[in-house]
Specification:
Blueprint: E1 3-11, E2 16-23, E3 29-35, H1 45-53, H2 67-81, H3 86-91, H4 106-123, H5 149-153
Antiparallel strand pairs: 1-2, 2-3
Helix pairs in contact: 1-2
Length: about 160
């Protein structure tokens, strides 16, 4: 790999990806601005990211950038085109345990499930791990529950 990607980001006007990389032969740090063409607020981000990664002009530079990172950058661009703020776009990548996943669209739900799968794999313990304990027992302390008025009034016969 001749080019080693260091940082990547987005530029909103004109819509483009900005790649900071190091040329491994000359050890020079360089910046490459890759325009995102034929992309609208209705475009599919995964297809656009795949098309950009396989583009003959940019393939060599984007070899060290993952497909999921390119998809995230395209989602940020698309959200900006739809009028959302950068904070809103970045918040959509975070997992919120209180969020109702039933209300999400299919594409966003798939992205959230993918994030949960990555988090699960990162936290999973295998038999080969040094911290693996075979029969782990965890004692969960029971919280005191509030008594409801209908509990006190109920018949003991039931």
């Amino acid at each position: 790999m001749r080019f080693q990607a260091k940082r990547c980001g987005v530029q909103f006007s004109p819509p483009s990806l900005v790649l900071m990389y190091v040329d491994t032969e000359t050890k020079h740090k360089r910046k490459r601005v890759i325009p995102v063409r034929n992309f609208s607020k209705y475009s599919d981000c995964s297809i656009a990211a795949e098309r950009l990664k396989n583009h003959p002009r940019h393939r060599e530079y984007l070899e060290g950038v993952s497909q999921s990172q390119l998809e995230k950058l395209h989602i940020i661009l698309r959200d900006h085109m739809q009028g959302f703020s950068l904070e809103h776009s970045l918040a959509s990548f975070c997992l919120d345990p209180d969020e109702d996943l039933n209300k999400l669209e299919d594409e966003e739900l798939a992205r959230k499930k993918g994030q949960m799968d990555k988090l699960f794999e990162r936290n999973r313990r295998c038999k080969d791990d040094p911290n693996f304990i075979y029969d782990l027992e965890v004692d969960f302390t029971k919280t005191t529950q509030e008594k409801c008025s209908w509990d006190e009034e109920s018949d003991d016969g039931f």
